[in-house]
Protein: HpnL family protein
Organism: Acetobacter peroxydans
Amino acid sequence: MAWSGFDSVLHAVLRIGMGGFVAVVCCQLVVNGVLGLAWHAAFPEIGYLKLLGARMVRDAAATCLPFSQVGGMVVGIRATCSGHGLHPTRSGRQVELPEATCANLVDITTEVMGQVAFVLLAVACLVVHQRSSPFVLPVVIGAAFLMVGVSGFIWTQRHGGNIFRRFGGAITRNIASQWHDNLQAGADHMQERLEAAWNRPWHIARSAAYHLVGWLGSAGILWLTAHFLGASLTFADAVAVEGVTCAIMSMGFLVPGSLGVQEGAYMALGHAFGIEPSVALGLSLLRRGREIIIGIPVLLAWQIMEMRSLRTAGRTEKAAAPVASPTMEDKSIG
């Protein structure tokens, strides 16, 4: 928000009116629901509401806080472990750290799988619109790198157990034996969960398909926003713009909030599709606006629930503390 400028975001919101902005935010909430379904498809044993909440916290941390996507994932893992009154699993048990880490890794992987299909579809739409576009070759190369990267990531998750054990053993060799054993047990548990998740190919395929629907939904939001701004953009054009923009943003995943990357991509692609620079910038600012209007309340609610959880845990520990028995000296005094 500080980088984009509050005045610029507010001006973009006023340009489409509060009714239009509310409609865009509601559409984003629907897409968030689809993303929750995608995660639940891969891990049906964890409650849908639990995964939806953790996903929204993860996205909010990555977009509203000065974190990269990696930092957002760390926050997402914590949110997946937290109960906060929801039933984390069907049996009501708490989600442990290794299982939460596994769930986030698999969800991010299936999201990238859906993104690869979305980017290829975007390239096809871009070629139909403008065969000589300078974006086609770089985006195709980027999609190829994404496919190679996700393939290696999947292989590592499925067959990297021995590597993780040796690496973890080398790191924890000189620490206390209890910590060493706990870390090794946690790594083994996480590897078991990863292998179990990837041994359910239909669940993985359903998750990737839901993510593809979510990506198409984001293109639909772009089309709706462009319509509110008075730009002439077909849905196929919106798929091309959103897909290529997402591919460019993926290459800059270490940049917190994709600051500058998103704006530059929208401006360049807007020019290719005949969109005025002010409208293209408005598309980017309205995207940040809906991320902020959803993300800030999500983060505040999560922090409040975290504080309540810590207080409850503290009271439970005090109540469970053993009462000291009277000593012989106390008895003699009595």
Residues 54 and 298 are 10 Å apart (CA to CA). The chain has one domain: 6-309. The first helix runs from residue 6 to 42.
